[in-house]
Amino acid sequence: MAGLVPQHVHWQPDGRVTKFRLRAKAIAQRYVASAYGLEKGCDPETVRQLLEKNTYIFPVNDKGEPIRSKPFESTAILRTIEDTFFEDDSSVGLMYPGQYISTSLSRPDEMELPPAMVAMASTAVFAVIMEFLGEGKEEFNSHIFASVYEHLMDFIDAFYDGSEGKYHTHFAKLYTIMHASKKKNSVGSESGKVLLMHLDLDAMEED
Q1: Which residues form the DUF6532 domain (predicted)?
Q2: Average pLDDT of the segment spanning 117-140
């Protein structure tokens, strides 16, 4: 990628890569089975088909076919991104707004989700899917994680190089999805003290 994009490639909040890798995988375990219809002892070929051609990163249509115009929009990936980076106001996705930029010179106010966030969550989902192959629970160690992660980053680089405009539109869409989700989840979640601020105590009756 050129221009503004490299700062995304090296996005490592506080350098705590291992912490986020482990957290992302633990969160992905909540969603992978239901999102892809997997269960213990399922056909290994079903699992391999998900991993081939990055099929697992796409949502599916009513016929179960991957919608390849919507990369990284599978339910498992979106939920993993949300819970890993946007769970609450202390989450890294909300604490560091400066990490969001726009690669579009004509639309500088349309922020994009950093590719590193997307690739890390997607790699975590990949790791959990691999566990359903049933070939022994080999540890998905940091070296394997890094290899899959770099593969996804190369894919994102190629996407950007192939169409900067479509890249911007899509990653701005992912940013909007995450922030819309955060606003939705925040409804009704205020603390008692915050809610008290909305109460007109002066107008209430008192014995």
Answers
A1: 14-159
A2: 84
